[in-house]
Amino acid sequence: MLLVMAGALSGASNVFPKDSGPAELLHDVGEKRVSSVHVIYLSPAEVQVRWTTGYVGEKAYVHRFSSLPEARSSSDAYVEILRQRLGTHAGEVDVDMRDPLAGLGGVSLVVPVLYWRFIAVGWLKWATLAVLAVCVVAMVGRKRTRAPSPGHWLSASLLLGSGFLAYLWSEPFSLRRAPAENGARPTRIAGWGVLLRSVSWLVVAALIAAAVLALR
Length: 216
Known about the structure:
alpha/beta, single chain, elongated, 48% helix
């Protein structure tokens, strides 16, 4: 559960980076906290600059040219400006003009099987994907679940994303309810119970993400 939530927070940080500026970028590069910078074309006179300093450390700012640059595009023009500003540190940073969020859709924000692509930290990205894959296999293959049908968990997970957290919390039994001493099976939950738990975790995850992003 903690790993899935950590992945969700990292993905949220990447989608909603901290509003920053050129001075902070130069400072982070000087502190050797940045290995690559994304210079993303927005319009003929506007670019977005993005970089990361680690877990939940995504930052960005928008540069607007006062007039159309002479280079082929605004991103090409700003790359030259950026390299001049970096000076002796220019060789230490890779400049990438690809948008790391290219292809992001609204569904990607809530479905873990999609948002793992937007986790910036490499080991966390693959660890999150591995946990989600194990959960899917368990949902399909496990014969003893508290839900009447494993399909309830699978549907909630694919549609809401937070269904993975509800599944990890509830199976094989709720972390708040230990099995009976006489070996009886834990109380089963209906499909609506799966949906309610999944929606509740969606709200909890959203509140945690909002708090972390607000306090960065």
